[in-house]
Amino acid sequence: MKSLNDRINELARSLGKDPEKEAMFDYQQRREEFDRLANQDIQKLQIETRQQRVQHIHGKSELNPKWTFHNLVEDAPDVVEAINIAKSFIAAHADPSWRNSSAHMMIFYGDYGRGKSHIAGAIAHQLIEQYETTVLYRQLQTLLEMRFSSYDYQSSDNAPEKFREINRQLQEVDLLILDEVCVNQSMLKKNTQSWLGNLLRQRLVNNKNCIMITNHNLKELESALGPYCFESIKEYDTYKVRFQGPSRRKQVVPDQAEPSSSTSQYQPNQIR
């Protein structure tokens, strides 16, 4: 009487298959190969998905793409110190307890062209790449102009809706960069002080970080922001970085006066 194995072999031959070759098929090895390929596909998909998320965050941040550490020139002690502080701030994000314990505020202050915005942008770019940190960069004056425009309810450009949306983003992003704070202003208006103070307090409650960039010194900044707003800053874990090196912007006006042209007879507002 034929065994079950013999019957299976006969069936295999009738189907045109070699039982000996079929017996050599290693199902475990093939399963491991399938698993390996499947894991590769999953990892590739995860990488592509993460890249898409990072690109989306970059796109919404409104950061200058040139503001990176690679483009920084360490040509003065204040820049070197600022970069060291910036990289320590970035490295601290690896600790979840640090991120969740409190809100952190970096104040970059100093004259124009010292690299304040560049280093703030470099911090933001790296945090996006490493931790997918959501970022929003805005000049304070631009926000205030949007805020004032939102009071015109008869406007046809949807200004109120636009400002409500940006105000939501201001509260929710992980890192808010406010540039040109109190530029050309010795003191913000009272209602502006209240609005900005409330925004900073809301972010403080939610452990959201800020970078504030200003041309004022700290004493002038306190006066310009007003007591209510500045008190909210004191509640943050604050890092103060002073920029006092040379300007990195291109010179437009030469150091020495140029000779006037003797051939030009033009005078402004002439009546002929």
What's the CATH architecture name of the domain at 55-243? 3-Layer(aba) Sandwich
CATH class of the domain at 55-243: Alpha Beta
Low-confidence spans: pLDDT under 50, at least 5 residues? none
Name the beta content range.
5-15%
Q: Quick one: CATH superfamily of the domain at 55-243?
A: P-loop containing nucleotide triphosphate hydrolases
The outline comes out as: elongated
Average pLDDT level: 80
SSE string, helices as H and strands as E: HHHHHEHEHHEHEHHE
Order of adjacent strands in the largest pleated sheet:
2-3-4-1-5
How many strands, which pairing sense, and closed or not: the largest β-sheet? Answer: 5 strands, parallel
- Rounded to an integer in angstroms, the radius of gyration calculated over CA atoms is 31 Å
Helix count from the secondary structure assignment: 11
Helix content: 40-55%
Secondary-structure class: alpha/beta
CATH third-tier fold name of the domain at 55-243: Rossmann fold
- Amino- and carboxy-terminal Cα gap: 127 Å
How many E strands? 5
Give an overview of the whole structure.
By secondary structure, the chain is α/β, with parallel strands linked by helices. It has a domain at 55-243: P-loop containing nucleotide triphosphate hydrolases (Rossmann fold, 3-Layer(aba) Sandwich), CATH 3.40.50.300. The chain has 11 helices and 5 strands, in the order αααααβαβααβαβααβ. It has helices at 4-14, 19-23, 27-61, 77-92, 96-101, 116-131, 140-149, 159-172, 190-205, 218-225, 227-234, and strands at 104-110, 135-139, 175-179, 209-214, 237-243. Strands 2-3-4-1-5 form a 5-stranded parallel sheet, sandwiched between helices. α4 (77-92) runs parallel beside α6 (116-131) and α9 packs parallel to α11. The chain is elongated, with a radius of gyration of 31 Å. The protein starts with a helix and ends in a 29-residue tail after the last strand. The mean pLDDT is 80. InterPro entries: DnaA_dom, P-loop_NTPase. Residues 247-272 are annotated as: Disordered.
